[in-house]
Write a structure and sequence with these properties.
The structure is a single chain. With about 130 residues, this protein is low in regular secondary structure. Helices cover about 10% and strands about 5% of the residues. Strands 1-2 form a two-stranded antiparallel sheet. It starts with 19 loop residues before the first strand and ends in a 73-residue tail after the last strand.
Amino acid sequence: MPRCSIPLCDNDEKTGGLSFHRFPLGKNDTKLLKIWLARIRRQGFTPTPTHRVCSEHFEEECFDQGSFPASASLDVCGRKRARKLKPGSVPSLKLGGKQPVAKRSSRTSASSYPHPEEVSVSPFARL
């Protein structure tokens, strides 16, 4: 069951009108992943292919124009539709406080991520 990985966000698949998006884990996405991790400020967190971020943390302009509004989350057959992020999109809304959240595991040092003030405020990463 998808659950949002942003600290203090309780959204999961039971929360209506949301879509859930994977972390950029491809070998060509290293810079983008560092920006995502700096934005969410979750110390010691190493995302896996099962970790997700809900659509509540992305600006509307981050979604593909072929996508649809959150209110139109079902297709004509009643199946859930998935909203897609534009390449380079980064979470920028409702990210919590200024201090990093305490470690959940010791896999990755928080110092390996850029400080949030060093990251562009734009909802799209500049790679």
